[in-house]
Amino acid sequence: MKIALMDSGNGLLAAAAAVHRLRPDADLVLSSDPDGMPWGPRTPEDVIEHALACARAAAAHRPDALIVACNTASVHALVAIRAELEPELPVIGTVPAIKPAAVGGGPVAIWATPATTGSPYQRGLIRDFASGVEVTEVPCPGLADAVQRADMKAVDAAIAAAAARTPREARAVVLGCTHYELVAERIRAAVRPPSALGAAPLTLYGSAVAVATQALRRIGAAPAPEAEPTGELTVLLSGREGALEPASLTYPEGRSLTAAGSVRRPVRP
């Protein structure tokens, strides 16, 4: 079994780690675009071009499924990627977990990039899945870039700014960018610090486990977390075979993919 994931940068690590936990025997192909990132400021046409290049590089390794582990690419390029690769290769997009967050009622805060915050795409998800629930859209300028660089001082500054715009009574925070899942506990501590005695518990909603589970479902595979960690890892950097970058290895999700027994020799197409 081989699962490919794509993103502009290290936002794919959370979903890759989730796949690895569910199926440690699965080969993984991680396709990112360090030469072209960030994708957020690009035009939709540029995003489609770069996302298709990442998807094609991953597809050349003949995976059983491809996860588009990027909210920006899912918004702008998912249709184009599916049109080119499906039905031969199942393609799974990433959608902010607004629906499960809204099930328990509000208030709910949605943290996302400035380009996604207030967009017709996000507003449509709120309308369809959170009607009647108090929702606050929180732009997080600079957070994804800081996570990509593993600049924790900048990460904490961006989180603090977003936390200040988040209602104090928020019951849930939707992590509307895959990069944010890598610093989820820093977000939790900023929004609901330990000093907030008597405050309601805060639930964070990411997408990594959902897309990993959906990828397995699409190829008819069941989770088997007890399987031997025999999966091999291939890393593609703007189409070139390489290794996980140092910034990726600062996160537990990245290190879990390179732990003893989880990485073998590179997989060739």
From TrEMBL:
SUPFAM superfamilies: Aspartate/glutamate racemase. Residues 247-269 are annotated as: Disordered. Keywords: Isomerase. The keyword Magnesium does not apply. Its EC number is 5.1.1.3. Pfam families: Asp_Glu_race. One of its GO terms (molecular function) is glutamate racemase activity. This is Glutamate racemase.
